[in-house]
Amino acid sequence: AGKGNVIGNNAVVSRLWEQCNLVKSSANLIINNLGFVGDTATRNGLICYANLYKGLSLLQLGTFWEQAPINVGKAATFSPRAEVLAEAVSLFESGLTASSKATFSSALQGGIDFPSTFNALIARTYLMLNNYDKAFAAANKVDLTKKSEFTFDAVSKNPIFETHYSNVNVCEPVDNKLGLTGALAPDATDG
User: Fold this and answer.
1) Could you give the CA distance from residue 126 to residue 132 in angstroms, rounded to a whole number?
2) Considering the entire predicted model, what is its pTM?
3) Along the chain (191 residues), what's the average pLDDT of each consecutive run of 10 residues?
4) Which partner from 60, 75, 83, 87 sits 20 to 30 angstroms from 126, CA to CA?
5) Burial 80-118 (b: 16+ CB within 10 A, else e)
6) Which residues pair with 69 in a beta bridge?
7) Are 109 and 156 in contact (CB under 8 A)?
């Protein structure tokens, strides 16, 4: 048992790793091209979206793995969990600052109250970093009357639904024995 025996062919874990890194890479494309956006308010809006998604990806990586790459690239260097989470909180704080000077187009995904969302994520991440004072301060800035949600439609589909309940169910049983053999297999006479 233990990490020496964990194999890398678990589809759920592999997909989580892949998706976090793909989202992080896409967010980097936006971040790296912000210089081409002339309007400051629009640029700040894009910073909010890119920092939210990249920060969430890093937060997920830091939650599930003890080391992960912060940067995107071939043979990227792995960083310890604390550094990954520190980068996530830095992105959330930068996004919070940008949110006060941002314009959000109706063409972009709606439903997100960025100041409260960033403050909630800052609080959560500082809590994971054992910085309780900063976590408490950020949590107190969350406006509990505001609601944030991801909205989906036929074009922008809910990725959780598509992964688990659509035609690609990676969590369904392998067979009527649930993939178990020998003494672990369910009794065929058990109705």
Assistant:
1) 7
2) 0.79
3) 65 84 94 94 92 96 95 91 98 96 73 93 97 98 91 77 62 74 85 65
4) 75
5) ebeebbbbbbebbbbbbebbeebebeeeeeeebbbbbbb
6) 78
7) yes
